[in-house]
Amino acid sequence: MSIDDYDERKRASARRYQENLHARGLCIRCRKPLEASRVHYLECEACSAVNRARSLERQKRLAERGLCVQCGVRQAMTGRKRCLICAAQAADADYKRRHGQG
Ligand SMILES: [Zn+2]
Ligand SMILES: [Zn+2]
């Protein structure tokens, strides 16, 4: 069994585990029952707040360096938070969402 197989299996089992928790209405991180308003989410309010704070922190760091907050690799456009490519992707996703495709 190669390392790749092992890795893939580990990922698949982690996914199944998360799906199982989600199906039971539990947070995939802390495994506490999800609030009624959050049953469609994977994480409870507390875990999501931690995540949000972490990603805001990351965005701030990237923005300070003038990097795209989405990919974190390319330079952000002047006066924008995203690079050209990520901005185009976001606009595309937004368009599809609004027009009920994809
Ligand atoms: Zn949680
Ligand atoms: Zn980008």
Give a description of the structure.
With 102 residues, the chain is mostly helical. It has two domains: 64 residues, no CATH class; 36 residues, no CATH class. 55% of the residues lie in helices and 0% in strands. The chain has three helices and no strands. The chain is extended and about 45 Å long. 8% of the residues are buried. The model has no long low-confidence stretch (mean pLDDT 92). One zinc ion (ZN) binds next to helix 3.
How would the global form be characterised? extended
Q: Give Rg in angstroms.
A: 18 Å
**Model regions low in confidence, pLDDT < 50 over at least 5 residues:** none
- Ligands bound, unique: zinc ion
Q: Could you say which structural class the secondary elements and strand pairing correspond to?
A: mainly alpha
Distance between the termini: 37 Å
H/E element sequence: HHH
Helicity, as a percent range: 40-55%
- Helix count, per DSSP? 3
Q: If you average the pLDDT, what whole number results?
A: 92
Largest β-sheet summary:
none
Q: Provide the domain count.
A: 2
Total strands: the figure is 0
Strand content: under 5%
